[in-house]
Fold these 3 entries.
Entry 1:
Amino acid sequence: MLRNFIVTSLRILWRNNAVSTINILSLSIGITAFILILLYVHHETSYDKFNENYDRIYRLEGDDYAQVPHRVAILAKERIPEIVEITQLGLPNYIRTFNIFNTEQDNQGNDRVIRTHRIFADSSFFNVFTLPFVKGNPKFALNEPYSAVLTESAVQKLFGDQDPIGKTIVYDHLRRPNGQYHVTGVIRDVQKSHLDIDVLFSFQDSTRWFGCTYLVLSNHADPAVVAKKINDLLPEINVDLANTLANGVEYQNFYLRPLKDIYLSTTATKRLYGKQVNGKLLWSFMAIAVFILLLAIINYVNLTTARSLLRSKEVKLKKVMGSGKGLLRLQFLAESILICFISCLLALTVMQLLLPKFNQLTMVRISLLEYNTPFYWMLLFTAILATGIISGFYPALLLTSFRSVANVKGQSLSGARGILFRRLLLTFQFSISILLIIGIITNLRQLQFARSTNPGFNKEQVVLIKRPGNFEEEYLFKKAFRERLLQYADILKVTSSSNEPLGEQAPSNLEINGLTKILQLKNIDPDYFEVMGIELIEGRNFSWDRTSDSYDHDRWLILNDKISIIINETAAKEYFDESPVGNICRINQLDHGTVEAEIIGVTKDVHFQSLHHKVEPTYFTWRRKSWGWVSVKISQANISETISHIEKEWKNIYGEEPFVYSFLDEAYEQQYTSDERAATIIGYFTILAVTIACMGLFALSNLLGPPYRHER
């Protein structure tokens, strides 16, 4: 019987090749789009699942911050038995690319160097995260001071085919003793993790660090109960932080975020690190995929029911010959499943051709080899069967529901209810298409608005350079580099800041009118506002001639010393009823005493980050011995020659340290790269949806003929 169904279905498809082609093409387009998005969603939702304790790992967050002082977790583990393990990563907001050197020279006498990510981690890291070791022992790999664990890719770049165990690597250009680490382990390259892991360095004294803390809870432990117990310790925690931590932060609430929710975040969190995508957007893609498949199924239902008059003779003869409704319905379902099977074969072929471009568009690495398993083939077969049954269920029900007498008289099998249902499906089809078009237009307009909105600073003709090192001598290097650059005519201004201009700044306590407030802190020099084009709306700027405006940590050893600070407009509005200029605040740095800070100016709010983030209360200080970033304002003329000159002076100061630069305007635009990519993806699939709907309408109009003569 099955063979008879297949042969009969193939004959019917061949005789009605025009309608069959439309059905197969629309279904194959729908299935291709659905599978591509399904693969993408599966890829994105599989992050961090390689960890054995995946369901029991949580990140400890404080208030709106993803990073907290490590002492919080230490105290919590001592008091809360449900916490069976903790690991702490040092300052993950600085997980960026760093130069890692192999101290052994190659055949040409040069150090091998790579620019890669590095993380400081404690000895418990491998008790929490499951990373397969190639060499070394995870129990002891990070136990000793100045130990390092590398991925296989990092080892290949640094050591080639040599055994790296016991060899020394350095992560700064001065080869300082506290920058030299011994390789104790090699792990496989880490895939699908929210952490960028290339090199892990050990650190021991984490009690005074800010960073990220991960907890492993015992089996059957309730994370809400554990979070409540941590919050019950808030008074003790805040007192402990005030006594032990520089710039201690006073917390109001702690929260445990599951590991499964970190990569697919749906809430805004400050001081983020690692990889993260918008979980809401991901499910929007899934909804679009379902809609596209529905449009293709609607096409099949409409075209099949519209051909009811042409199928009346077939139904009449089979009923006269004694065929029952059940057998007829199986025949129509077999046709539907066969069309879905052919469409799926075509979709799989097209998908393999499109997958490289799709990977490039979505910036992921999806390989079909990963899904070449019996489980996924069985899943695909089940999906084909389900799609065929869904597509053919209503046509099979409609085409077999009429009495034989009606068929003998040659009446149409459509009927009023078939016409009404078909019109409803058409309305639904084009409603979805219109909604998708409205969605992509709205998305593009929002993106255009974000890019055209004045961020409050001048991002044109500014070159960003990351300086190496974090040490006292850097002040001399910075000063010499600045003086050399300013001698060149096309370099207008040079300024320094402790953080990347577009990055989120470090949280810091500022005591205002006797109350401790958390603001973002940015260390700059007096030329910063002029280089960035930031408007000072009240008061004055820092002055090179006033040493009292600036500070270095040595000056903070003097009790009752005073420095100058500048706050932004948001801080002024939030914490002051009148003009804040002249107000005295207090900054507490445990290692260097407490310093008074006089507010000397107020700047306009600046959107250094994208418009997805609101402007946070911020204060600026001038730290003479700051390190971090150099921002160079250049003229529009001779840009390439100016960059070459900057590189030349860089080599004069920093030697072999690689010169890496970027333009501020390009870096700012990159903040909207993910939004632009999402808009592009939605745009492509919207085009597919509209194409499928138009194909169905075209085929339906040609089948029925204007003006729908069979439906009047």
Note: The mean pLDDT is 79.
Entry 2:
Amino acid sequence: MKNNTTNITLDNKQSTSFEKNLSKYVDLISWIRFYPDLFLDLIKPKTGGITLHPDQRVFLRAAVRFFSLYGCFPRGWSKTWGEVAAMVIVAIAFPNIELALTAQTKDNSAELLKDKINELLKQYPMLENEISKKHFQKGDAEVIFKNGSKIDVLANSQNSKGQRRKRISVEESALLDNVLFEDALKPIVEISRYTCGKISVVDPEELNQQINFFTTPGWRGSDEHGRNLQMIKNMADLKGEIVLGSNWMLGCWYGRGSSKSQILEKKKTMSPIAFDQNYGGKWTGSSDNSLVNVNKLMNCRTLTKALSATEKQSDEYFIGVDVARSQNTNNNQSSIAVGKVNRDEISNRILSIDIVNMMTVSNALNFTAQACIVKKIKIAYNAKMVIVDGNGLGAGLVDELLKSNYDPINKEPLGCWDTINTDNKPEVIGSEKCVFDLKAQTAQTRIVTTFIDMVDSGKLRLLEKRQENELYSSDKKDFELTCLPFIQTDLFFEEVSNLKLKRLPSGSLTVEKVVNKLNKDRFSCAAYLLWYINEYCNNIRIKHQSSSFDFKFRQPKLRSL
């Protein structure tokens, strides 16, 4: 058999139909590899199926032609569908190739692959002829093709370290940090694919070790924001990388996802940052003078379970309360943070402070009702101290906490409290001293620096980031425990990422909002909590050891004369 760049001639002895038309099959495979959208048009059923839009065609071609694609698209644009469609076409066109879809957890990536594979097979039934086996179960998914290719799933975590695939597609890449990527994900594609046949070699023209990134925009100053900017520069320098993106208008124009009226309605109810990231196509937050490093703040999100009450009476809890003074009536809520202190048993040193729950209280409630809610939370966690911002409107809440209150539902007494740092008199003399009336302006610099130190040192631990399909699933039974605390933590993350560090003329430090529409009440209550624990509860026990040279004396006895 003779092979050149123009055609393929065959020996007379090779007379099968396949061998006679081998050059045509070579052209077909080359065409599929370069025009994946036209291949889908070719196999589209006469009835049903979908007609690809121009932006989807550009997306598919970029996914198979470039060494690395970074796609930043809003919710409902169909980026995950296009991502999986490109993977399926690559698996068909490259025998024995191994591809992987990665996401925050293996469960999440398995669900994404399962949904999109089933959707593609419904839209293009002929793809079923290329698949020999499908295996989907909780936490795992695998699609094996008749040519030996395979698509499976991995997690964006250290659990994927040591795995090997030929190409990977990273879902929700904005949540990655570069240390994890370089250590666990990038080496996955270290080994290239070898061609099939007697001469098994690495094709130098093939996109071996390809890594594609797909996400909605995240936070400025993060590692992924830097990667996005670097890839834009590499795209301009023709280094084989490309960045694509849009806001909600592109998909909406072609009729994909939510309608214009639905999205504009969401804009009224969502926070400005959440809307910009999920639909506006904007990387948000502060990149200059940001309060904390976004990557370090993301690394703090390690807690997998929220708590609605103490698990042991010996556990050490503290509660921070910030009374909102927002002019935005739609978000005029007081915020409460519950922190659990974990200590070293020997030295009593604080190892971590876990924010196990966050909640908000509407300011439509009077101070008596708000005081009842705070006292019920304190009783549930058996908290040692409640730190309340006593400035302005907060003074009204402090006054109510110093009165006897009763549960408005079952009429049980909630007790009367006293402060530990003011001369305010409680309604009942001798009441429990468990209120710290904080005048935040007098300790603003220490509050800010303590929060920064807690994040940088990793002592602050927050509830983990969960995907929308996990949070808003219809089968969630206990929404207030399994979903709401994680949503509140997301909002807390938005508030912190929206803050810049500012030095006043007096030399003291404070924080300043980048987007004024977004409040900072969740940040404030957590910062007060961390400051109090660091200032008043960070005592270290020193274990005294007797020296081997210590002298011991007996009490002298007087001799009688």
Note: The longest strand covers residues 350-362.
Entry 3:
Amino acid sequence: MKHAGQRTPHQAKAKRQAANEIARGFAQAVAAHNAGSHLQAQALCEQVLQRQPDHFNALHLLGTSKFATQQFAEAERLLKRAVALEPRSAAAHYHLALAQFALRQFNAARASCELALAVQPNFPLALNNLGNALNELDELERAVECYSRAIAYKPDYAEAFYNRGAVLSRLERFAEALVSFDRALALQPAHALALDTRGVALIELRRFDDAIESIERALAIRPNFANACVHRGRALASLGQFDRAIADYEKALSISPELEIALLGLTAAYLLTHRIADATATALRALAVAPDSAHALAIAGQCCARCGDVEGAIRHFDRALALKPNFTYLITEKIFALDAAPWAGAVEHQEVRREWWDRIGSKLAPQSPVRYPNARDPARRIVLGYVSSDFRNHSAALCFGEVLRNHDHTAFEVVCYSCSPIRDSMTEELERSADRWVDASRLSDEELAERIRADRIDILIDLSGHTAGNRLPVFARKPAPIAVSGFGSGSGTGLPTVDYLFADPVSTPPDVRHLYPERIYDLPCLITLGAPPAESRTLEPPCIAKGHVTFGVFNRIEKISANNIPVWSRILGAVPGSRLVLKNFALADPALAHQMVAKFVAHGIAADRITCLGQTTRGEHLAAYGGIDICLDPFPYNGGASTWEALHMAVPVVALLGNRSSGRAAAAILSSIGLTDWIANDEAGYVDVAVRHAAQPEQLRKLRQELADRIASSASGNTVLYTKAVEEAYRGFWKEYCGRSGAAA
């Protein structure tokens, strides 16, 4: 009789036969998997598991095959069973991590990769996937370390080079990213993602032509690569080639109609080409696709601002900043929008600038006193560096251009750092006014700072403030001994690394100066403007011939706040037969013009009393003043160049004295030439000033004939005298710097 547990030869043979059949079935599954026949491989693995449920290799292979057919949840379930059976299998942990990553379980994927690496530390695939998980979890520095370790074990690992480049780009270490992308492409030249993402890094490095070349290589490999179309559009827009950029964004949307970055790029291009209605519609599409996207909220806010809806703009910007607190461009947009907010005074303006400094600028500033090689000779020729993206046909250039033209080059060497690729007739003229001209449009902020140091600039002048195209990150790095902000925004930069701010006593009164980190230096006026040709002026008020007064507003639409329409409507109602001409490039958009007229109609003004004019040539623009009797300056965001321009064209301006620099600029200009009776302290006074002067056509005629001489004899309007005041300021700043003890700034 056989003992318990003792097998007969027949039973042993049957067991061997079953084991052989399982082995053959698994071998067939492996062969099918390797041949890409995943459904067959899965069926064979399931047959094996029916006979042996704890067959680790079959579970592992079935899970891997399920992953290959994108059955990620089933793959995860099977691979969890596999690693429970064999916790020392690095490959099983790795494949489980892949399934978890596909399911967006990034913490779980990280843990599985770490278990794989605990078993096999020199496992480059697991290191690469761990880097991917850490990237998704925003642990970017650790992700870079993982990719670098993977590359150390596998020097020909193109995907790890690509992934490292992508994360370095997220860290804004674009030059390092470029090295990784180039290495990936040396190993795998047809890596379309690497070519495209390399292009994005080149855009950030302001190497736009190189970016386009790289992205076009990606598109040659993948013609319907929607993201690459968007990125090429972005590079083209940076070069001012907006029509081509729009075509690229539209192509991307034809491929992927809900691609957020394409909608955002198209909206931005529409804004830059003054297609406000199209921009607004596209921004709404972007928000519908991504309602919680900081970028979509930001671009929608910009559209609101361009339509004069400042409250809507700030509401969008605040929501976006709650999602992305360190969004540099967004803080700048909010700063710009606050200029038009009626409730925002000097305190609010400085608070948001301090926010930019705390979140952005302070991270770039030198951590210890900087030593400069500049010779400390108070009497020598001072090297001035002017930084702007507006050395072109732009209202800002009409102001600071006069200082450039009138500089004493025996006492000052003038270096201009032009940060826009756009060149026009104004660019050519301003370049002739400089001793040295640097095309800084292709230089990153760090590269520009290094160039300024190498050029040994003594006084670096910001001409933009927080307006579009500014290079304030360069000023945060303190590349010159002295930094000044002027002629751009009287509200200042908020940067402690900017030493001085040009202002005047009216725009920046003494009781708010303690709020500014910059030291305030008073010029005769915040800005000046050169006189147009005398023959372009119309000295006779048009109301005398027409029999009715024509008011004019030749300002940006975003300066026309909700407060303006009812006040201007009251003026029109109080001056019988009067008309109002609104002129701005944005009003070429029929939808926006209709919307603007409707606002007046809602306040009881007939539509035929409102005329909207769009963009014209410079000559036509100046000629349009010939039909205006009195200009109405917007509030709380005043004109600047437009205020001077009206006065130069012999058209007086009504202004309201506001509660922040941008709301006091017009009053500062009028005060500087003695026209204080055209300044009101409140809305009722503003209406009274306009109505009173409109009723005195002979006084208007007398003033129009006097204005040119009044301006020319003033220190604010005479650009030669104004420039001398600026140069006296520079010399004083330099003498003070030279008198300080020690070599550090």
Note: The chain has a mean pLDDT of 94.
